[in-house]
Amino acid sequence: MRVYCDFDGTISKVDTTDLVLTRLAAPEWEALEARWVAGEITAAECMRAQIALIGGDDADLDAVLDSVELTPGFIDFAEWCEANAVPLVVVSDGVDYFIRRILSRHGVDGLEVISNQLATDAAGARALAQPWSRVGCAAGSGVCKCQVAVPRAEAETMVFIGDGRSDFCVSGRADMLFAKDKLADYARSRGMSHHVFADFNDIKATLSALHAGAARRAAG
Asked: Who is most buried in 94, 108, 122, 181, counting CB within 10 A?
């Protein structure tokens, strides 16, 4: 079993990028968001342009990030994954620095994080690198989740946890899908098998029972 989990709105209670933009970016970020929603630009293009609009210094940015809370049960879930040798990978169309700062503040370190990458030059200007983008990505995202959220071993069960539009395409590839909000609506409208969750306590209960059953069968 390997668990891939979205970050913004899934692990974090809020969309971290939107919060940072609201607090620190020039107001043009909202026009870019509208163009993305209208289909005029891709999600990847939108993110690159929006990140470049973020002002303030590193202390200002950290102060915003340090206000972000995690969805209930995530810390216990991460500890359960580690204790049971279940790889837990954060796969997000958000920003690596935002994710790692927030997780570290809550005492969650060492998780693999696949996301867009923040760079800041000597003058303090910010830019976004997108090494996980893919030409033709159905979501048009800076991180093509279909490309990175895949089984890494033969017969490995792939679990995906998410909530939004960037999770739509990869959701159909998961052996087990946990969904809420827009992703749950998407899965329901297409008749996809999925588990609706409120927080990570729900997910831990389901996966721990599945893991225990698999261990019993393996023991004979």
From this structure: 94
28-38: b (≥16 Cβ within 10 Å) or e: ebeebbeebee
**What is the pairing mode between strands 2-5 and 126-129?**
unpaired
Q: 36-64 pLDDT, tens per residue?
A: 999 999 999 999 999 999 999 999 999 99
Show the domains of the chain with their CATH numbers: 2-14+70-219 (3.40.50.1000)
The residue type found at 80 is W
Angle between helices 58-65 and 16-24 (to 10 degrees): 130
| Strand 2-5 relative to strand 88-95, pairing | parallel
pLDDT digits (tens, 9 = 90+) for 73-84: 999 999 999 999
Contact residues for 136 (Cβ-Cβ < 8 A; gap 6+): none
Query: Where is pLDDT greater, at 118 or 169?
Result: 118
Beta strands in the chain (DSSP E): 2-5, 88-95, 112-120, 126-129, 158-162, 176-179, 195-196
- Chain-centre distance of CA 39, in angstroms? 22
